[in-house]
Every structure is written in C-alpha cells, then in structure tokens.
Amino acid sequence: MMPRRCRTFQAGLVVFILLMVTGCQTETLEQLSIIYGIAVEADENDKEKLSGIISIPFYKKDGFENHTVTAQGKTPAEIQNELSLQSSGRLVVGKAQVLLIDEQLARQPVYRFMGFFTSEFNLPASTSLALTETSPKAMLDMSTKNVDPATNISTTISKHERLGIIPGTNLLTFVKQYVREGQDPYLPLVGMENGNNSVKLKGLALFKDDRYVMPLKGAQNLLLFALLEESVSHVLYESENDGLPLIMMFEHSNASYDWNPSEKSMKVRVRVHARLQERTNSPMDVHSEAEKGQLKMKAEQQLAAELDRLVRRFQRNDLDPVGFGEIARSQDRHWKAKEWKAIYPQLKFQTAVSVEFDSERR
Q1: Which of 139, 141, 159, 302 has the fewest beta carbons under 10 Å from its own?
Q2: At what angle do helices 219-227 and 289-316 cross, to 10 degrees?
Q3: Could you list the residue range(s) of the whole structural domain that residue 145 is in?
Q4: What is the per-residue pLDDT across 112-124, written as a single tens digit (0 to 9) for each?
Q5: 217, 232, 262 — which closes off a domain?
Q6: In terms of DSSP bridges, do strands 348-358 and 98-102 run parallel, antiparallel, or are they unpaired?
Q7: Domain edge (last residue) among 187, 217, 247
Q8: What is the pTM of this model?
C-alpha cells in the first residue's frame, strides 16, 4: 500500500492542478476536439492494456453529433498519445462532464490513471466521477436526443444528488476523501436501463483507499446518507415488516456523534422529521393517534436496527464511508490513525433514532 505521506503529496499536487486557472486558447473551434466524457475500461484482448474512450460531441443549430474515440495502451500516457493521434484537433477537456471507470477495473488501484487524467488532461475539479456496471464505452455511445451522452450521465448524477438520494461527489471530493485519514471514498454507481439508451443510478460504490470494494444499493443509500450529517429529504421509506404498514417521507434528518476514547465506543444519534403517508387517498382513512404512536415506535426501532446492521457491515469489510474516524479525531486530541485502524472493526456503536411525524397532510 502506498505510504500516507506519498499519497498526500500526490493528491495534494492533483488538488493544486485542479484549482489552477487554465490560460485562454486562441485556436478556432474547428482546430479543437472538445471532450465532454472520458471512460476507462479493461482491454478485452489484452489484460495488460487499458482502453481509454473520449466523447466529442459536435453541437449544431438543429442538434448534435456525438463521436467517440477509443485507444489502447499499457499506460495512461500511451492512451493519451493515441487519442491525440486519432482526434481531428487538439484535445480540450475544459467542458468535461464525467469520468467513467469500469466497475471491475476499479477493483485495481484507480489513482494510477485517475491522477494522470487529472494532471495531464487538467480535468475540471467539478467533473463527475462514476463507476459503471455496464461498459463505459457503451454508455458514451448511447443515442440521446437533447444533450450528448456524457452530459446526460452527469445530469442524472447531479439530479439524484440534489434530491438527496446520494451524497454529492466529484473529482475534487474524491481526492480529498482519498487523502483524508478517517474516511473512505465513495462514488456513484451507474448503468444502462435494461439495455436501453437511458442512464440509471444503481447505487453507491464504496472504496478502501483507491480500490473499489463493494456496492451499496436501495434503501441502504438512504441509511448511509442519514449517517453523513447531511439532511435526507423527500425520500420515501417503507417498512417490510408485518403489522401496521409504515410508509413515510423523509422531510429532514440530521446526525450527531459522541466518541468515548476510554471505552472505545461511539454513540450515534439520528433525528428524522418525516411525513407519515396515509393508507389511501380518502380523507376519512387517516391514522389514529394511537396508530401514529405505534408507527413512530416502529420507525425508530426499525431504523436503529437497520443502521446497526449497516455499520456492522462496514466494519466487517473494514470500510468507513461515514467518516467515523474523522469524527473521532475531531473529538479526541490523542487520536492516532494507526490505533484507529486496529480498533475500528471491533468498535462498539450505540445507535439511537428519534422520529417526529408532521401532522399536516399533503
């Protein structure tokens, strides 16, 4: 594993490059190949090589034409050189919307080529990053109507971030999480909907350092979001247990933490403000106060149990996407990264959830 000091220096250099202001270019548009999307995947014919794909849309008054260029090489530098040779003009990435990485390729360290594209291509810090369940080349080759495929993918990711379904991520946030002691990175996981030309958010991809470890899908995205000190809003939560059906809309949530270094334990408190969904649309079919009390208790107990299971899953896989280590460090001046890594898998967590229902009906 790369030493922390070396990783910090490398990533610090990347952050510096990301924040640099590029100079003005004097070439005409006809002399430029403006990249909107970049993808990296394993070469099907040679395991030692990578395939790099760039998406170059040409916008016209009546629409656009999307062109992709593919090149293979053993190193990102070889890929860049080949892409430059195949392109009709100088490669420009100032409008790059997304960098896609094949899910299986991400099982290997991704920083070796991500850092290259960042430094040599000078990708914007706001570029969306995502792992793909399907071929990233196929996604950049999608047939789309109003905008090019790369912009379509980036817009889909941004929409889910704004809705509070997944945490906000981009190139810069990934680099920061990568170098930060006490939190592991995560990225959106996307794919194509049933082979059609549409993008679907599949979940989150959780990393250990710069290696992809496992996905997080469905309701577990909501649970992770609730643990991240970020507000979960307008997300529907449904209970699968027997008894009174529980359906509620998250309106607001927040989390707080209390680290006890002597007992090696952490208390996690999650507060949820939600709107209880009635059983039917009939104004006569509403929950009684007694039923609301039962559902409140059910919601609190069930959410606490699900959060506990999720945290234990993180511990079993030695993953900390929440940043519990960062939280403990902020509350303990004697915190040390090496000691934290040793105790984290066995750390005691106590999770408490409080739920308040908004009585107003929509």
Answers
A1: 159
A2: 90
A3: 4-217
A4: 777 777 776 778 8
A5: 217
A6: unpaired
A7: 217
A8: 0.84
Q: What is the pLDDT of residues 172-184, one digit of tens each?
A: 899 888 888 899 9
- Same-domain check for residues 14 and 127: yes
How much of the chain, in percent, has pLDDT values that exceed 70?
84
Residues in the chain, overall count:
362
Relative orientation angle of helices 76-86 and 111-120, to the nearest 10 degrees: 50
Same domain, 179 and 302: no
Co-location of 124 and 148 in the same domain: yes
**What pLDDT is attached to residue 253?**
86
50-64 mean pLDDT = 86
> Which amino acid is it at 18?
L
Give residue for tokens 């059906």: 245
**215: three-class secondary structure by DSSP:** strand
Nearest to 104 by CA among 135, 128, 127, 83: 135
Residues 6+ apart with CB under 8 A from 272: 226, 232, 250, 252, 253, 299, 303, 353, 354, 355, 356
What are 270's two structure tokens?
């999650």
> What long-range pairs does 340-345 form, CB within 8 A, spacing at least 24?
340/182, 343/264, 344/315, 344/318, 344/320, 345/315, 345/316, 345/318
State how far the Cα of 289 lies from the Cα of 112, in Å rounded to an integer. 58
SS3 85: helix
Find where tokens 């209880």 sit. Answer: 276
Say which CATH number the domain at 256 has.
3.30.300.210
| 53 and 157 share one domain | yes
